[in-house]
Amino acid sequence: MERKLATVLFVDLVDSTSLVAGADPEVARRRVTQFFERVAHCVTTHGGIVEKFAGDAVLAAFGIPVGHEDDAERAIRAGLAMLDSVHELGLEARVGVESGEVVVDESDSTFATGEAVTLAARLQQAAGAGQVLIGPHAYRLTSDRVQAEDVGPLDVKGFGERIWTWRAEAVLDGAPTAIPASARAGSRGSSSRGSKVRQSSPAARCHTARASRIGRSPRWSSPPPGSRTTIR
Questions:
Q1: Distance from the CA of 208 to the CA of which of 3, 77, 82, 141 falls in 20 to 30 A?
Q2: Residue pair 215/78 in contact by the 8 Å Cβ criterion
Q3: Over pLDDT 90: what percentage of the chain?
Q4: Rounded distance, CA 91 to CA 188, Å?
Q5: Cis link prior to 224 (omega < 30° from 0)?
Q6: Is pLDDT above 50 for 172?
Q7: pLDDT recorded at residue 32
Q8: What is the dotted CATH code of the domain comprising 2-210?
Q9: Cα angle 109-139-65, degrees, rounded to a multiple of 5
């Protein structure tokens, strides 16, 4: 076991029941698989790893196994890119992000546990369709680079005090980015320097620049929808 400072991201499909209900099983399975593939690619493109699948949700971590000073920003960039990429499939997602100390199992699974993991899951559950909610630690680490709306305190199951929350809306263009140079090359000049943007270029690269992945590939041997883990 090892303690690390990391940023955790949870993303889940919105109204996945209606996606499956009345649909051809093969079509539904293909769309859900596309959701997982796009989300996983957004994670690895921004330097994170896919930790696990929990039903229709994905848990990702930034800062494991290798930490970066901008892991929280990387996670928020990935979350915003996910929303746009998933929307192109005709689906909606919601995202929760929080930073903090986690305990990492040094086995092959490298599974992380800790308060940040639990809070990220709760924020994802509280987010609306097409929203990225971030917790206080993630906000503090990115407040000078992320445009976020103050949502105020939320009652979060498992936490004694209400947790102050923000909704991420954009990353300041020109802020340090986690996307590798090979992925950035195709988007030079796409936006004005210093303006606030909603991740349009990173979102497009998220599912097209597959050769520029960094981090670790997601681990699944078959389409993930069958697995389910309860976050306690």
A1: 141
A2: no
A3: 48
A4: 29
A5: no
A6: yes
A7: 86
A8: 3.30.70.1230
A9: 20
